[in-house]
Amino acid sequence: MIKLSGVCKTYRQKGNLVTAVNDVSLHVERQEVFGIVGYSGAGKSTLLRCINLLERPSTGTVVVNGTDLTKLSKRELNLTRRNIGMIFQHFHLLSSATVAENVAFPLRLAKTPADETKRRVAEMLNLVGLAGYEGQYPSQLSGGQKQRVAIARALAAKPSILLCDEATSALDPETTQSILALLKDINRQLGLTIVMVTHQMEVVRDICDRVAVMADGEIVETGNVIDVLLAPSHAVSKRLFQVHSTTDAMPISTQKDGRRVLEVSFTGALAYEPVLAEVAQETGCTFSILRGTVDTIKSVPYGQLTLAWHGTPQAVQRVAETLTRRGYVIANDVTETVPSEVYASC
After folding, report:
1. Which architecture characterizes domain 249-345 according to CATH?
2. Are 134 and 146 spatial neighbours (Cβ–Cβ below 8 Å)?
3. Bridge-based pairing state of the strands 2-13 and 16-28
4. What is the DSSP string of 62-103?
5. Cβ burial, residue 47 (10 Å; 0-12/13-18/19+)
6. Tens-place pLDDT, residues 42-78
7. For 2-240, which CATH superfamily applies?
8. Fewest CB within 10 A of the end CB: N or C in the chain?
9. What is the pTM of this model?
């Protein structure tokens, strides 16, 4: 649905040339939810705005549904943009217009007949759960309601793509969950392709199918969310997804203490099965959990555990082999190390 090739965006700031996006290439599949994450200043929002050419790339191509937007005339680009809805962190509603008038705004720009506009507005407000709010003004709404109006407005022209620029960053956690649930429903019901810029990792876990990690204007890692989360390859990805490092670990002697420390991950049904207990019984080893997380990604359970296994070297080697055979992924065989703060607490 979306293909960016060699996209760069540079601009002048106080006489200096600044590169906001540097040679980015990526693709977004039809009907998927694609996340773009990174720290502040990484270039996420600039890249997102390059997709609909609100920011025109300095170099590179932007192909949306088979059309290279960089080659379109201004009139052709404006027509094509009707197929790309966008919502923002701070809603950008017209304060002097009612809810219905805000949703109708893009339809009026497109000179949609009045009766069709009225029908479409009612349909969109019903979709986002705001039927009956037609005559309200933005000042009378909560943050979550304002974002729902913004979503209804973005969908009014029946786009096939929705761009979300930090759409939940200004919302409290409960409201964020309701907006994410709405976006998931929209993705499923309308077959919409959604691209989300966010710095909230819980948003990525909850709604995104794939994710691209940005740093200094570049894409440093791309992949399925669960793969990037469980086995990130770049230092920025590890910090964003809070993957613990053993570089500051306190050395311990496996010969003296008879322990081997494994960092493991697992997904799906393994989250509910007593695999660790069964492996311990099978190998004659015991284990302790030094650190762990069990959560879900788009309703798929996953876990990350740091385990200290106690037993003979041969028995513990059988533990590693058995865990791998049972479907666990050994992300790191720490063996001689354990994080100092955890070791102290043990």
Report:
1. 2-Layer Sandwich (3.30)
2. no
3. antiparallel
4. EEETTEEGGGS-HHHHHHHHTTEEEEETT----TTS-HHHHH
5. buried
6. 999 999 999 999 999 999 999 999 999 999 999 999 9
7. P-loop containing nucleotide triphosphate hydrolases (3.40.50.300)
8. C
9. 0.82
